[in-house]
Amino acid sequence: MDTHRDTHSAAVVSALGALLDTRTFPATADGYRAMLDWARQYGQARRAGVECTGSYGAALSRMLQRQDVEVFDVNQPDKRARRTRGKTDLIDAEAAARAVLSGRTKVIAKAGAGLVEAMRLLRLARDSAVNARTKAINQLKAVIVGADPQLRESLAGLVRPP
Fold first, then answer.
1. 107 in a domain, yes or no?
2. Residues 6 or more apart in contact with residue 25 via CB below 8 angstroms
3. End position of a domain, from candidates 65, 80, 102
4. pLDDT given at position 1
């Protein structure tokens, strides 16, 4: 699958490498179910190659894993292949499917649960708090620079807490 914010494009490739079909679905829970139902029309969906399993493809990846589909994290196709075949979402989806079929991709997508996911969320919250603190300090400094000289001088000895 080639994943984006609003849509995901998918390709179904047979075990022998024949392209069976391609289609684009909305990046919604209903779209994910429709994509899996569509893929299962061609047989048992056992494996899937999904681009961006840590961002745009994360929710799709987790849904597929809950449905007992083995999900592989697929890198974008190499630039040489893109130049020779062109660049469309459906071509990228086909390339992802072929990467799984050929064994070129071996990275199993993260489940998005457990201790690793909890740590990722804690890190995200911490980074956000540090950025907010830095912005607040910078805004206060900017206000002090333009403040009345008497106020500015009274605050001159203050140091930033660690």
1. no
2. 7, 8, 9, 10, 31, 32, 34, 35, 38
3. 102
4. 92
